[in-house]
Design goal:
By secondary structure, this protein is an alpha/beta fold. It has a single domain, classed as Rossmann fold (3-Layer(aba) Sandwich). Helices cover 43% and strands 16% of the residues. It is globular, with a radius of gyration of 18 Å.
């Protein structure tokens, strides 16, 4: 007897999947057998690269440009998926930004709105399209990529932290709404993960040393840690899991500084 993650016959949309976490998620869903939609906003070359890699490895994938903060783009993303692969069985709301570090009162409201537009309205726009289709099928999985900062405040990044906390409550509320249609909704909260966007932190010995003090395990996370977790949650192995957040953070939420006392 063996246990495997089997997503054959499933169609998965992964927003913001041209690089970083989204790319790894798309790769693992493809390896599990899903047909994958690689979504990008600007990085067409990188999106084409991962699409071609999946096709070369025997998987099925298409590449679709769309800005998730624009409702017309989102509708086009889902309509294109319908036409080329079929209705989505899996949606991973991964696209997001942290924005500029600005203290409230000295900040630019337009920047706050930009972060909320991508990180919170984007998942909402995508999810409403997914739910329409999943309700017809009476099945589906929606994964929202939040952050440990749905729990932990981050000074200077009130928009980011607020968007992730809001996305967490959206996960719980939506899970309650759609459970009777056999649609599961789950948040995945990455901690300190090595991605190109934060290389200035983990690539510097001093800042890396400081960051590792915030993690209970003796390493930073890799993008594959997130890809594997999402693939599991999308599979039938996780068929009784919904409405919760799974932190994938090496124990950052354990507040490891306290292991030596208060």
């Amino acid at each position: 007897m063996s246990v495997e993650i089997d997503l054959r016959g499933k169609v998965a949309i992964v927003t913001g999947s041209s690089s970083g976490l989204g790319r790894s998620i798309a790769e693992y869903l493809s390896m599990a057998g899903a047909s994958v939609v690689i979504n990008y906003r600007k990085e067409k070359d990188k999106a084409d690269e991962i699409t071609q890699q999946i096709l070369k490895n025997g998987g099925k994938a298409i590449c679709v440009q769309a800005d998730v903060s624009k409702i017309d783009d989102v509708q086009r993303l889902f309509e294109t998926t319908d036409q080329q692969l079929g209705p989505a069985d899996i949606l991973v709301n991964n696209a997001g930004i942290d924005g500029k570090r600005q203290m409230c009162g000295d900040d630019d409201p337009a920047e706050w709105e930009r972060v909320i537009g991508i990180n919170l309205l984007g998942p909402y726009y995508c999810t409403r399209e997914a739910v329409k289709r999943m309700t017809v099928k009476k099945s589906g999985v929606i994964i929202n990529i939040t952050s440990d900062h749905e729990f932990v405040p981050w000074s200077g990044y009130s928009a980011y932290s607020s968007s992730k906390a809001g996305l967490s409550m959206f996960t719980k509320t939506l899970a309650q709404e759609v459970a009777e249609n056999n649609i599961r909704v789950i948040s995945v909260a990455p901690g300190a993960i090595k991605t190109p966007i934060n290389e200035d932190v983990w690539g510097n010995p001093d800042s890396l040393r400081d960051l590792l003090k915030k993690v209970a395990m003796p390493r930073l996370g890799e993008v594959d840690d997130i890809g594997k977790a999402v693939a599991f949650l999308c599979s039938d192995l996780a068929s009784y899991i919904t409405g919760v957040t799974l932190p994938v953070d090496g124990g950052m939420l354990l507040y490891p500084d306290f292991k030596h006392g208060g």
